[in-house]
Amino acid sequence: MSDTDETQLEARLADQTEFEPPESFVEQANVTDPDIYEEFEENWPDCWERAADLLDWETDHDEVLVDDDEPFYEWFVGGELNASENCVDRHLEDRGDELAIQWEGELGETRSYTYEELHREVNECAAALRDLGVGEDDIVTMYMPMVPELPIAMLACARIGAPHSVVFAGFSADALATRMNAADSEYLVTCDGYYRRGDGLDHISKANEGLEGVDHETTTVVVDRLGDDLDHELGDDQLDYDDLVADYEGESVEPVVRDAEDMLFLMYTSGTTGKPKGVKHTTGGYLSYAAWTSHSVLDVKPDDTYWCSADIGWITGHSYIVYGPLALGTTTVMYEGTPDYPDKDRMWEIVENYEVDQLYTAPTAIRAFMKWGEEYPEQHDLSSLRLLGTVGEPINPKAWKWYYKHIGNESCPIVDTWWQTETGGMMITTLPGIATMKPGSAGPPLPGIDAQVVDESGEEVAPGEAGYVTVNKPWPGMLRTLYRNDDRFINEYWEAYSDEEADEWVYFPEDGAKIDDDGYITILGRVDDVINVSGHRLGTMEIESAVVDVEGVAEAAAVGGDHDMKGEAVYTYVILEDGYEESEEMRQSIVEGVEDGIGPIARPEQVIFTPELPKTRSGKIMRRLLEDIANDDDLGNTSTLRNPDIVDDIQEKVRSD
Length: 657
Ligand code: 6R9
Known about the structure:
657 residues, alpha/beta, Rossmann fold, GMP Synthetase, Chain A, domain 3, seven-stranded mixed sheet, 22% strand, binds ligand 6R9, AMP-bd_C
């Protein structure tokens, strides 16, 4: 293309606000009939049979939905199945020799597993875990980086009916201990380390430190990823993964028959109070929903090579690296490392080498690719790509268009998928073979999902006005409760908009949004309690308590400030105890305190010392104001403040730092 053509194309793209799905995509898409929205609405909740039909059931359900005890909904009641059987065994006959997992390590080594091989690995691991004493409903914690043993162990747990609780490897030792204690989890599968930018990173020391904070006996299995690159000794209650599994060579374990409503896994996520929330997902509803959305939104087909570049330690990896794609019998790609090692074209090299059909990634990654420049994707043949997806935060139209043009060559639809750990799978997004795409707007709710944008009193807002997302009807992939905390489940998600007297239950995801006159929803972000760093949700309260733990800190507020690369970055405002003075040393110990308490991902971008925090009369910190200060935005109304003068002082400080 000549330079003038190029410039004209950029100009056209910049102005274009609507994009139609490419014809070549529509012709082959899994879902193409626009009547699907109406069909689901008319046949609700029976429409969800369509999701359940994507799985193999040991026993069929008696009822699609039981809502006797709202909001504790039950789906596919009476149905029985096993998730590992659905993700592995049932593909053996037709697809035993086809690849299930294609793994690539950061240093370039590869490991691939056919369904046959995955079946063997999962069985051996299941046999080993069972002999260690893991029984049905025992929670197994996994603190693992992106190694194949992670999905293998997850599926092994599913096979023996033991729910897993995966803790993101980037989280701190404390985070591991808190989660193991909260779930009374007696088993841990972890790893000696992993590679980051070519260096072997010690992970086992952090795991061991975490185990010291666990208040009960534990058994740990350690995957040896680094070999000679890391010397480590196993403790008394620790076993080497390979040695352990070697004793079970060729062994097979009958998949345990689970009720549809039996727990498949727990996933801890940040909340408004310091304590993480244990989101409970079930076997039948969750798996059906992960499979259905992989089929309808990601257009996954068995012959595809599909790549979601998230970490399995986040819900996106659970639903869309492991359960959804494997339930559909496709090849799922797993990459261990960072996108810019050894060079900034690593992602595109992977797409080219494996001829990836769908790529599902996060806006934070797309912003990085954009910054690095199109010369990196241009070095590779990306023509295998058929669909692109994003998840985790709002994507701005400029990044959307860059993705569309430079990665998708204007011939792949983009699905901007809004959902949450709690929803189990995608909720608001376009169906790629049907709908017009509008960059920046996620799209309409999926068929069968009754979501709207409302004001504080629950009335639907007029098009263009800001409000809050709510969901009026349950769906199969929804969380069933917060582990051991039904009250908190109700408080967090249902209290705000439900009318208990009238028995009207409304799910509140705590996201702000706008709606267009054609029903497209643009997500504006979390209501106020969570900071989204590179697509990872961090609770402000969790960060604040880590800051306050630092000696000399009296009080702290953490907010998210806009950040070019990460989406949001953490800003902390700190009040010191009397007798302590603002210093570089103090700043350093606060940064370290957060890194130790939560993980490097939460590292504060800026630490601002202040004698007071802006508070409402009832004593609530006005985080919204602190966010505006961090972003150097207009402050708007400060009249509800108890101490309005402090605002100018803080503002001056941030600007001069
Ligand atoms: C899947 C996942 C959930 C929160 C959610 C929202 C934000 C996710 C988004 C999005 C705008 C999208 N979010 N996808 N915001 N557009 N396409 O990210 O789960 O880690 O639980 O975070 O992420 O604020 O409420 P989780």
